[in-house]
Write a structure and sequence with these properties.
alpha+beta; about 30% helix; single chain; three-stranded mixed sheet; three-stranded antiparallel sheet
Length: about 140
């Protein structure tokens, strides 16, 4: 990418074990802890949670973009992004499940929007062929 349209910077100190992460420009700050699944207290935030938040929101914007191109009202779209972390041959790896629900819309049309959004969402592009991603229509 030659010229980014937007950049942000996050600063982490201490990693997952009682560390903190914050945006350099302020506004967001998180106390970090290992999840219970990784042997921690689970009393703070973790990178997988932050990744799921970002991907869910970005994907919902991609659904709105694709729906707009097709002249479809997807204003009731709800995207759920579940991110997992587990052991792989090389240590630890991520997996994801993205679920799309749009009340009152035909299941086939929701599936079409889900598939199309997965092609244009920057998070989906960044993870394509790098982690297992399951796409699902809710309902």
């Amino acid at each position: 990418m030659s010229d980014a349209l937007y950049k942000t910077k996050a600063i982490s100190q201490g990693g997952r074990a009682g560390g903190k992460v914050a945006l350099a420009e302020g506004g967001l700050y998180f106390h970090m802890e290992h999840s219970k699944g990784l042997g921690g207290s689970g009393e703070g935030s973790n990178p997988e949670q932050l990744f799921a938040l970002g991907w869910a929101n970005c994907f919902n914007s991609a659904v709105a973009f694709v729906a707009g191109q097709k002249k479809i009202d997807a204003s009731k779209a709800v995207v759920t992004c579940e991110v997992g972390i587990g052991r792989t041959e090389g240590g630890l790896g991520l997996s994801a499940k993205i679920t799309l629900a749009i009340a009152g819309m035909d299941r086939a049309q929701v599936q079409e929007l889900l598939d199309a959004a997965h092609q244009v969402c920057p998070y989906s592009k960044a993870t394509r062929n790098n982690i297992p991603v399951e796409l699902a229509v809710e309902g």
